[in-house]
TrEMBL record:
Originating species: Hungatella effluvii
Family membership noted in the UniProt record: Belongs to the SLC13A/DASS transporter (TC 2.A.47) family. NADC subfamily.
Keywords, alphabetical: Membrane, Transmembrane, Transmembrane helix
Coiled-coil zones: none
Record's protein name: Sodium-dependent dicarboxylate transporter SdcS
């Protein structure tokens, strides 16, 4: 067969897959609409909600459209089709989480440009010795500081992936080696694990806390810190040890002098770095003591960076902000808003109540974790949290069990995975092509198994001790 014939065959296969995917994305929602009976318990608006949500989730899962385009179509389509009033569908924009996402993404861009990211990372690596184990340890520990100063997981993953890939190339580490994989995984741990140290460090936790706020069960920054920082710091150390054990050094590197040179090349902190650091420190102080929602504080911090006399950022920085992610966050939150409006959470919780009647706090928390893990296989973490967080809040409240513990346990499960496709943030790491699928699955699977053991043996008892299970 000639090259033209091969190309034609590939195009045919591509077109076939394309039409099959779109057939699923459109066909499944249509089947749901006609298969779900309209009764006193299931309204027409509820049936429409299932159709819109199924379409959006399938479109996101199969990557048929840019996520923010799918989100915009979901938002506008739900309003025009009468799933819920516009004030309900657009309600995420009147809350703080969307603005928190925008502020966090913007601060991440400014943080990278300022040079603070490299300064903090190189400091920890040099202090750790600059060896392979030292690099992994230094990168991971730097996440404790960066997680507090850069309040956005997406931004931190992008920062750490770029940093670790630069180290991988500079030290000429072989592709698909344990050494290269270990350094990249350390960067992922540094970006993700600190999300559980501080309530402000994770858009996922902020999203769920916004749902808890609607029912009067939200937690403050300090309440969360007291009940989570010690045990989650131990979790970060567990993941550090896991990476060192799973990916033992198999390539010789001499990074001590390299990192010392990189650290020295940064010189003394510039005036811009100092001013930006002051803004971030004031942001943290405000989150701890002011009682103002973090989303509004993030926006104020961004504004401060552009003020005359401060001039930490400029218009070019705004061009690098991932604005589509903000619209995606709003769209996923709209799913939760519509779910509450049409009564889905109440209906599903009524159906599940007999099964969960006698499980107790521990049983419900484990069930929430398992549901989160399964959910992540079928939809994006944000979409899963938007769809199921109201459900678990309602179930826990009706059973008289811990609303806060159950909901945060669900998020803990949603953030676990077995395959790279399950989480866009892990796909960013995987896209650098430093390690193969086998190593990716090894890291993800062991991390997921450790997460349920850690939840049962350490997190749950600590939450009981601190009163977080309320």
């Amino acid at each position: 067969m000639d090259k033209q014939g091969i190309t034609a065959d590939k195009k045919t296969v591509f077109d076939l897959k394309f039409f099959i995917k779109w057939g699923i994305a459109i066909g499944v929602p249509c089947i749901l609409y006609f298969a779900i009976p309209q009764t006193e318990a299931v309204s027409l608006e509820m049936r429409k909600f299932f159709v819109c949500t199924a379409w959006a989730i399938l479109t996101w899962a199969m990557n048929l459209l840019p996520v923010y385009i799918s989100g915009l179509l979901l938002t506008v389509g739900a309003i025009l089709w009468g799933v819920a009033p516009a004030n309900v569908v657009l309600s995420p924009w009147t809350g703080s989480v969307v603005w928190l996402s925008l502020g966090g993404l913007t601060l991440s861009v400014i943080f990278e440009k300022s040079g603070l990211m490299q300064r903090i990372a190189y400091f920890f690596i040099v202090k750790s010795g600059g060896s392979y184990k030292g690099i992994i340890t230094g990168i991971t520990l730097s996440g404790i500081v960066v997680g507090l100063l850069v309040p956005n997981m997406t931004g931190r993953v992008a920062l750490y992936c770029a940093l670790c890939f630069g180290i991988y190339n500079a030290l000429k580490i072989p592709k698909n080696s344990n050494t290269g994989a270990g350094i990249m995984f350390a960067g992922f741990v540094a970006a993700i694990a600190p999300s559980w140290l501080y309530l402000s460090a994770s858009e996922n936790l902020q999203l769920v806390n916004s749902y808890l706020k609607e029912t009067g069960n939200s937690v403050s920054w300090m309440q969360y810190f007291i009940s989570n920082f010690p045990v989650m710091l131990l979790w970060l150390i567990v993941l550090l040890i896991m990476v060192r054990i799973l990916f033992k050094q198999d390539a010789s590197i001499d990074g001590k002098e390299y990192f010392k040179e990189k650290q020295e090349s940064l010189g003394k902190m510039s005036k811009k770095e100092i001013k930006f650091l002051v803004i971030l420190i004031l942001l943290v102080i405000a989150m701890v003591f002011s009682g103002i929602d973090a989303g509004w504080l993030f926006i104020l911090a961004v504004i401060a960076c552009f003020l005359p006399g401060v001039d930490v950022a400029d218009i070019e920085d705004m061009k690098q902000v991932n604005f589509p992610m903000v619209f995606f966050v709003a769209a996923t939150m709209a799913i939760g808003s519509m779910s509450n409006a049409v009564g889905v959470a109440g209906l599903v919780s009524e159906l599940m109540m007999p099964i969960l009647q006698n499980v107790g706090n521990f049983g419900l928390i484990l069930f929430a974790w398992l549901t989160g893990v399964i959910t992540d296989m079928m939809m994006t973490p944000l979409a899963g949290m938007a769809a199921f967080s109201p459900l678990f809040i309602d179930i826990a409240a009706k059973l008289g069990l811990s609303v806060v513990g159950t909901t945060f346990s669900f998020v803990w499960g949603v953030e676990q995975l077995f395959f790279p496709y399950e989480w866009a943030l892990f796909l960013i790491l995987f896209s650098y092509d430093v390690f193969d699928m086998k190593k990716a699955m090894k890291f993800c699977t062991v991390r997921t198994i450790l997460s349920i053991i850690f939840l049962a043996l350490l997190i749950y008892p600590y939450w009981m001790m601190t009163g977080f299970l309320r």
